[in-house]
Amino acid sequence: MDNWFTNVPLADRLIYRPYTMTIVGTIRKNKPHIPPSLVENDKKRQLGTSLFAYSSNSTLVSYKPKTNKIVTLLSTMHTSSGTINKTTKKPEIIHTYNATKGAVDTFDQMCQNMCANRKTKRWPMCIFYNMINMASINSYVIYAHNVITRGEKPIIRQMYMLELHKKLSEAHQTSRLETVTNMSHELKKIIEDVLGR
After folding, report:
1. What's the CA gap between 1 and 138, in Å, rounded?
2. 0.70 exceeded by the pTM?
3. Which SS3 state, helix, strand or coil, does residue 84 take?
4. The predicted structure's pLDDT at residue 73
């Protein structure tokens, strides 16, 4: 996960049934569950050093790669000890994150390329638009997996999004066409064309 999603309560919830999932992700330094000593940029702290904090089922690591930078990660995969890679001198948690973060970057890129976001000052709408983006990408991934499993070629994402839009709005358009009596002839024709009538 990237730091948009990673937090301690979510990690604690995901590790138990019915999910039984482990996570590795960067975590924002302003989260209340992070001890202040892990996020303070102490001038005396040497470059390349790591600090660890443990709970019953997770590990927090604070790594200092540069003078004015501290990277914090949370892992429920690495719970026993703070293993440091002998070659790079970085914690194993960072190596695991770097090896698997490609999906997070791809997901973020897909959200930017084709998104439902609209300019708004209302934060609930921002969350709603983000949920629409995530749901549409996840549905496309499931669709593509199912189609490839059958040995077929999936349609491109843009065409998929247009089809998804049509299917999701079809019931509303049909209802509007049948119930609204004073609809203009032009609008009625547009809805009929979209519905294929």
Report:
1. 15
2. no
3. strand
4. 94
